């Protein structure tokens, strides 16, 4: 059983958003059984090892990447379908709605994103630049060894904005359309993109399908994330946030990341993104926003407050959409 009406999917997404914001994914479960992203990651690693062989031609690796992506998506969906079918056979529909919502919380990262970005501020306060660099290295892929305090804060805010879209809005968006299977589908593709969707000699061909599909399925969520951030901006900065989104988001090398990053930059009166170093290579990204690049710890706190308000707008939107169906349960 993989297809559900909106009368089930919208309450699942709304309830999952509320529950995950309150409790997140318990660390005791991570220690005992791992996390669904870890399970999907293990599958991706096995397929990468088995199918992405260096002596294959680029064309063959691209087609094997399509096959690998199909397995990365279909295997988790198949397992999800079996579990849901077994559950609906023994539990009433209202109870399975709650089960779907609780399971969906594992695929949403509101609380964990807050914790990891707040840890950057704590690292700067307690350990200076070394502490901040170590903390921010846990959430970004760029070189952090030479980052100044402003660079550390900008990196944390960029991660906060992008992961608000990828880790919060997108899984809830797909859950709102298709319930738990929708969130599983999204997370499988997004995890594949994060692991193999890179323009490196090893993965440029094999990971192309994952990268392209991830771009497509994140299109609606990135725009919705930008909208939530703009609405959450202080009233005096709301117009600047709108302008930053429409002016700067299309300049970003990603078709999606620029939307929440530009909204975050405009809402805080900062400049984000811009030139960065990855693996020793300088990448000349466009700046998002026309504010100052000298971000401070205070700006990080303002960004976290903005993120909380944006999550509140998203939860409110989901609850309003789901309310007619919840009342009728």
UniProtKB/TrEMBL annotation:
It is a multi-pass membrane protein. InterPro entries: Cobalamin_biosynth_CobD/CbiB. It holds the Pfam family CobD_Cbib. GO terms for biological process: cobalamin biosynthetic process. Keywords: Cell membrane, Cobalamin biosynthesis, Membrane, Transmembrane, Transmembrane helix. GO terms for cellular component: plasma membrane. Coiled coil: none annotated. Pathway: Cofactor biosynthesis; adenosylcobalamin biosynthesis. The chain crosses the membrane at residues 63-84, 90-109, 310-327. It is found in: Cell membrane. GO terms for molecular function: ABC-type vitamin B12 transporter activity; threonine-phosphate decarboxylase activity. Converts cobyric acid to cobinamide by the addition of aminopropanol on the F carboxylic group. Belongs to the CobD/CbiB family. This is Cobalamin biosynthesis protein CobD. It comes from Acetobacter orientalis.
């Amino acid at each position: 059983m993989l297809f559900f009406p909106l009368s089930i999917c919208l309450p699942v997404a709304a309830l999952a958003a509320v529950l995950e914001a309150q409790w997140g994914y318990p660390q005791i479960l991570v220690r005992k059984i791992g996390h669904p992203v870890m399970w999907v990651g293990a599958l991706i690693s096995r397929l990468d090892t088995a199918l992405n062989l260096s002596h294959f031609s680029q064309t063959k690796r691209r087609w094997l990447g399509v096959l690998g992506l199909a397995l990365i998506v279909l295997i988790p969906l198949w397992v999800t379908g079996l579990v849901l079918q077994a559950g609906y056979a023994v539990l009433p529909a209202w109870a399975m709605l709650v089960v779907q919502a609780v399971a969906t919380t594992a695929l949403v990262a509101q609380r964990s994103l807050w914790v990891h970005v707040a840890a950057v501020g704590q690292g700067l306060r307690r350990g200076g630049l070394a502490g901040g660099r170590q903390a921010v290295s846990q959430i970004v892929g760029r070189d952090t060894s030479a980052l100044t305090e402003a660079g550390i804060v900008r990196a944390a805010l960029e991660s906060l904005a992008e992961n608000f879209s990828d880790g919060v809005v997108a899984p809830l968006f797909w859950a709102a359309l298709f319930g738990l299977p929708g969130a599983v589908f999204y997370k499988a593709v997004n995890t594949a993109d994060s692991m193999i969707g890179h323009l490196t000699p090893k993965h440029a061909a094999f990971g192309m399908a994952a990268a392209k599909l991830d771009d497509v399925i994140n299109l609606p969520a990135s725009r919705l994330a930008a909208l939530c951030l703009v609405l959450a901006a202080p009233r005096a900065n709301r117009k600047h946030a709108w302008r930053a989104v429409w002016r700067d988001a299309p300049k970003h090398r990603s078709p999606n990341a620029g939307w929440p990053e530009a909204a975050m930059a405009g809402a805080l009166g900062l400049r984000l993104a811009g030139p960065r170093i990855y693996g020793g290579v300088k990448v000349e990204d466009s700046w998002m926003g026309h504010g100052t690049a000298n971000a401070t710890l205070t700006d990080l706190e303002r960004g976290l407050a903005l993120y909380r308000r944006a999550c509140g707008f998203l939860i409110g939107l989901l609850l309003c959409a789901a309310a007619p169906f919840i009342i009728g349960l």
